[in-house]
Amino acid sequence: MAHAIILMNLGTPAEPTPSAVRQFLREFLSDPRVVEIPRPVWKLILNLFVLPLRPARIAPAYQEIWNHGLDGEAVTGSPITYYTQRQVALLQQRFNDAGQRASVSGDVQKKEKQEIIVAHAMTYGAPNLADTVARLQQDGVSGFTVLPLYPQYSATTTGAIYDQVAKIIRASRNVPDISVVHDYWQHPLYIEALANSVREHRERNGAAEKLLMSFHGIPKANTRKGDPYYQQCCGTAERLAAALELPRDKWEITFQSRFGKAEWLQPYTDKTLVEWGQSGVGSVDVICPAFAADCLETLEEIAVENRANFIDAGGREYRYIPALNARIDHLAAIEAIVREKMPAGICG
Ligand SMILES: C=CC1=C(C)c2cc3[nH]c(cc4nc(cc5[nH]c(cc1n2)c(C)c5CCC(=O)O)C(CCC(=O)O)=C4C)c(C)c3C=C
Ligand SMILES: [Fe+2]
Ligand SMILES: [Fe+2]
């Protein structure tokens, strides 16, 4: 008997080409969890405007981040996949080491010990969750703990993963023993890892005048309808600021990656940086706590596009603090979050 931990993130195109980006966006943007516009209207917009035009515009940005790492990391392929695979390998190692320690100390009888297998899946693109679960079942896995790598719950991200789990359950006669972590926006080890990353960054570069915490946005209407994402982002930001003992005028929370014409969560990251540059803020550190791995939205939109927004508006120094990626304290947080969700009695 074995138990599997599946780390999930959003996904990415198979290649940085317009046709692969189109294929990825078609799957992603067809999910009613992501875009809530009535289906017939959205289908028209998607097929007439978004899919014919956006891939050619976005593919060059994907080309820039492909094989691109921060701090000298030798990233291959799309960074989000690379870092998720690193997280899988390091988490597997942690469970193997813990299992070995338990065997040596005699805590676990050999016959009781369950093998823990760590894998990853992407909500869109490859590898998908259904194929991953089926493959693991063939390898003898009977129980699953799914960790959406989204610290803050949103129906657009974590909700979409619950849908995919529900689909697997609906299609099963002997339904798998499967549980999903709902959120971890206030987990002390997650907050500690974020705070450590800011502290280390400041030790190397000095502290900027302001710390900007930029979260991926969602439409404002989703919050009005009950999506807790906004409140959870604010909760993470306040806890991070408290851990760093930052006075309120030294940090700000903003929302990035607006898509379409509707109003999204505010303040917007790009507008804030322009305002700061124009109003004499000289230096800014930017962290993106909602992203467990660096990806297009951090490496391009934050580290490149928004740097230009700030500098062009008069800002002097702009520093992006990398996502938690494969940091040891991030893996410690992930391990703790998963262990808290795993059924009692499973050890590894
Ligand atoms: C259309 C609406 C979108 C919503 C709602 C949305 C929410 C959301 N997304 C992430 C995390 C990521 N998004 C990424 C890329 C991306 N996101 C959207 C749109 C929405 N996201 C698009 C169209 C794209 C693709 C790029 C583009 O065309 O602009 C990624 C990066 C993937 C990669 O390949 O690197 C991540 C990660 C969160 C956390 C979130 C809501 C909380
Ligand atoms: Fe997104
Ligand atoms: Fe974006």
Automatic annotation (TrEMBL):
<dbReference type="InterPro" id="IPR033644">
    <property type="entry name" value="Ferrochelatase_C"/>
</dbReference>
<dbReference type="InterPro" id="IPR033659">
    <property type="entry name" value="Ferrochelatase_N"/>
</dbReference>
<keyword id="KW-0627">Porphyrin biosynthesis</keyword>
<comment type="function">
    <text>Catalyzes the ferrous insertion into protoporphyrin IX.</text>
</comment>
<dbReference type="Pfam" id="PF00762">
    <property type="entry name" value="Ferrochelatase"/>
</dbReference>
<feature type="binding site">
    <location>
        <position position="297"/>
    </location>
    <ligand>
        <name>Fe(2+)</name>
    </ligand>
</feature>
<dbReference type="InterPro" id="IPR001015">
    <property type="entry name" value="Ferrochelatase"/>
</dbReference>
<keyword id="KW-0479">Metal-binding</keyword>
<dbReference type="GO" id="GO:0005737">
    <property type="term" value="C:cytoplasm"/>
</dbReference>
<dbReference type="GO" id="GO:0004325">
    <property type="term" value="F:ferrochelatase activity"/>
</dbReference>
<protein>
    <recommendedName>
        <fullName>Ferrochelatase</fullName>
        <ecNumber>4.98.1.1</ecNumber>
    </recommendedName>
</protein>
<keyword id="KW-0350">Heme biosynthesis</keyword>
<dbReference type="GO" id="GO:0006783">
    <property type="term" value="P:heme biosynthetic process"/>
</dbReference>
<dbReference type="InterPro" id="IPR019772">
    <property type="entry name" value="Ferrochelatase_AS"/>
</dbReference>
<keyword id="KW-0408">Iron</keyword>
<comment type="similarity">
    <text>Belongs to the ferrochelatase family.</text>
</comment>
<keyword id="KW-0456">Lyase</keyword>
<dbReference type="GO" id="GO:0046872">
    <property type="term" value="F:metal ion binding"/>
</dbReference>
<keyword id="KW-0963">Cytoplasm</keyword>
<feature type="binding site">
    <location>
        <position position="216"/>
    </location>
    <ligand>
        <name>Fe(2+)</name>
    </ligand>
</feature>
<comment type="pathway">
    <text>Porphyrin-containing compound metabolism; protoheme biosynthesis; protoheme from protoporphyrin-IX: step 1/1.</text>
</comment>
